[in-house]
Amino acid sequence: MAAMMAALRGPVARFRLRTWAWTRRTRGAANAVGGQQQGFDLLVIGGGSGGLACAKEAAQLGRKVAVADYVEPSPRGTRWGLGGTCVNVGCIPKKLMHQAALLGDMIKDAHHYGWEVAQPIQHSWKKMAEAVQNHVKSLNWGHRVQLQDRKVKYFNIKASFVNKHTVQGVDKGGKVTLLSADHIVIATGGRPRYPIQIKGAMEYGITSDDIFWLKESPGKTLVVGASYVALECAGFLTGIGLDTTVMMRSIPLRGFDQQMSSLITEHMESHGTQFLKGCVPSLIKKLPTGQLQVTWEDHASGKEDTDTFDTVLWAIGKDAASYTYTSSRKLAELNSLQQGSSPSFPAPPGSSTLPAPK
Ligand SMILES: Cc1cc2nc3c(=O)[nH]c(=O)nc-3n(C[C@H](O)[C@H](O)[C@H](O)COP(=O)(O)OP(=O)(O)OC[C@H]3O[C@@H](n4cnc5c(N)ncnc54)[C@H](O)[C@@H]3O)c2cc1C
């Protein structure tokens, strides 16, 4: 009995500390647990293009608005700031890298137009990446300022539902914040998928969540997938002079006009991107040199083949970012600790507990 009490003392003390943090750090948190008062008119979960636009518009219309945004680091450990996929690991850095590639093409053409350009021309990934990353960081800051200007409260927390008007957020230090709102918008976007059935895929591969934040050049790259993300990444990697191969299982840009898709892949091929069509990777192995040996099956020939690459980039689709309900039992504990009263919330459907962000 004494041993059990001693074992429990730690967690209970921690729980009390957390309760104190809720009451100090969040407006309306205690009331939210008691179910008496709403903290905000609108709470938006997700600070990407969708969430920020929604929050700013509602604030403009005079509503009391909060945004909860939290970036779960990629399996590689890449993390970024406010603004979501487009700003940090999508449209913006991608367009800047396309611009780098286009400039390279123009420099190659320039001497035909009378420009004296020292040959061979060199490209520094390090310089480009640093400039792109600094630009993205300035946008992160800009988004925070925009929220502040519109009086939208920003919480850097990973949110999960407690009930339909209450959300629990955990920050990177494990501190918990409770927020309540009349309306809650889920704008959590998606994250790139890994083919976890392929040995070495997650351990050694990267995705579009990482490529824009690499400090060093990815070198010889295999892009797996035939989505617009795959083709765009392969396009700018080829454009800045890297040996780039796209491996696709079937057709490029499924769901897009196939005549246009063929024009795109033909154009890419003419600019140096290599394509392995009808091929599916089966194993990624790290060699003592640090390079990655990729084994794949060629469905046309029925044979297995291998090659080595410096980087393997998965661009095989996205999964919706998940969020879960806090268990009703945990909520009951919380309620009685904070209010000294008995639990008053019904059990949410499909209850499960969200782990604290790592
Ligand atoms: C390489 C690439 C290039 C692209 N290029 C273009 C382009 O040129 N044009 C274009 O229109 N689109 C482009 N896109 C698509 C575009 O980026 C997305 O459609 C858009 O960003 C989606 O916005 P969103 O607000 O729905 O989600 P996101 O921008 O993904 O925002 C969701 C946010 O919610 C956060 N979040 C998730 N779960 C939680 C939680 N439980 N608690 C708190 N926060 C959470 C996420 O971390 C993220 O910050 C591109 C995408 C990629 C990957």
TrEMBL record:
Pfam families: Pyr_redox_2. Residues 337-358 are annotated as: Disordered. One of its GO terms (molecular function) is flavin adenine dinucleotide binding. Residues 40-322 form the FAD/NAD(P)-binding domain. One of its GO terms (cellular component) is cytosol. InterPro entries: FAD/NAD-bd_sf, FAD/NAD-binding_dom, GSHR/TRXR-like, Pyr_OxRdtase_I_AS. It comes from the Eukaryota. Keywords: Disulfide bond, FAD, Flavoprotein, Oxidoreductase, Redox-active center. GO terms for biological process: cell redox homeostasis; cellular response to oxidative stress; glutathione metabolic process. SUPFAM superfamilies: FAD/NAD(P)-binding domain. Coiled coil: none annotated. Its cofactor is FAD. Belongs to the class-I pyridine nucleotide-disulfide oxidoreductase family. PANTHER family: GLUTATHIONE REDUCTASE, THIOREDOXIN-DISULFIDE REDUCTASE. This is Txnrd2 protein. It comes from Phodopus roborovskii (Roborovski's desert hamster).
